[in-house]
Amino acid sequence: MRFFFLLGEAFSGIRQNLSIVVSVVLVTFISLGFVGAAGLLQLQINQMKGYWYDRVEVAIFLCTETSPSSTCAAGAVTEADRQAIEDKLTSDEAEPYVKSYEYESQEEALELFQEQFANSSISDSVTAEQLPASFRVALKDPEQYEAINELFGSMNGVEVVSDQRELLEQVFSLMNMASLVAVSIAVIMLVAATLLIATTIRLSAFTRHREVVIMRLVGASKAMIQTPFVLEGLIAALLGALLASVSTWALAHYGLSGWLAEQYPSTGFIGGTEALQVIPLLFGIAILLTAVSSMLTLRKYLNV
C-alpha cells in the first residue's frame, strides 16, 4: 500500500513538471543512444577482428623489371628464385608457421586488378609486367608475421613481405576512433541528463515544499519524503533508457544484420541478439544517473 502511495505521489509530480520530465526522457534517450551505438561498434569491431584475423594472409611480392626496391637491383625474379621461395615455403623451417599458400602470377594479378578497378580508366593503362607476382601465405598463427618476414624478406627475387594486418589495423583504428567520439558525445549528454534529472527533482521539491513540511511535521521519515522525488527522476530516466534500448536493437537488427549485411554479404555483422548485451548497460546507466542526481539534490532541497 505504501509503495502505491509513493508511486502515486511520483506521478503527481510528473504531471506538474511534464515539460521538464519530457526533456529528461529525450536527453537521456539521446545520450544513452550514443552509448548504445558505441557499444554496438565495439561488438562489431571485436567480431570483425575475430573473423578477419583468422583469415589474414601474408603476401610475398616478387621482383619485376620496374621494381624500385633495393632488393630487386638484379632485376625481375627468375624461375630459379621463384622455385627456391616455393621450396622454402614447404620446408621444415617454415612448417611451424605456414598453414597453406597460393601462387598468384602476374597475369592473375592483372585480372584481379581489372576486376577491382573495372569502373576506372586506370584499369586499361596497367599491364601484367607492371604488377608483381606473389605468394599468398595463410599463417597458422597470424601473430607470426615477423617470422615469415625474417625467412623470406632477404631472399633473391623478393621485393617485399607484406602483412595484411597492417591494413586491417588502420581500418580498426578508424572504427575505434569513431567509437571514442560516440562515447565522448555520450558523456557530455549524460552530464546534461544528470543535471536535468536534478533540476526535475529540485522543481518538484519547490512546488511541493508545503506538502514536504506537513509530512515532516506528522512524523514522516526522510525516506518517505524523498522516495517520490527519486521515483520521478527514475521513471523519466528509465523511459529514456527504454527508447535507447529499442533504438539500439533496431539499429543492430535492421541496420547491421539487415541492410548492411545485404550490401556486404562477405562480411559478418552483429545482429539483434548481440545488441541485447548492451541493453542492460543502458538501464544500469539510467539508474546510476538517477542516483547521482538524487545525491546532488535531495540533501540540499529536502531538508526541512
Automatic annotation (TrEMBL):
It is found in: Cell membrane. Its main location: membrane. The chain crosses the membrane at residues 20-45, 177-201, 229-255, 275-298. The keyword tRNA-binding does not apply. InterPro entries: ABC3_permease_C, FtsX, FtsX_actino, FtsX_ECD. It is a multi-pass membrane protein. The keyword Cell cycle applies. Keywords: Cell cycle, Cell division, Cell membrane, Membrane, Transmembrane, Transmembrane helix. Residues 56-161 form the FtsX extracellular domain. Residues 184-303 form the ABC3 transporter permease C-terminal domain. Belongs to the ABC-4 integral membrane protein family. FtsX subfamily. Part of the ABC transporter FtsEX involved in cellular division. Forms a membrane-associated complex with FtsE. This is Cell division protein FtsX. The lineage of its organism: Bacteria, Bacillati, Actinomycetota, Actinomycetes, Micrococcales.
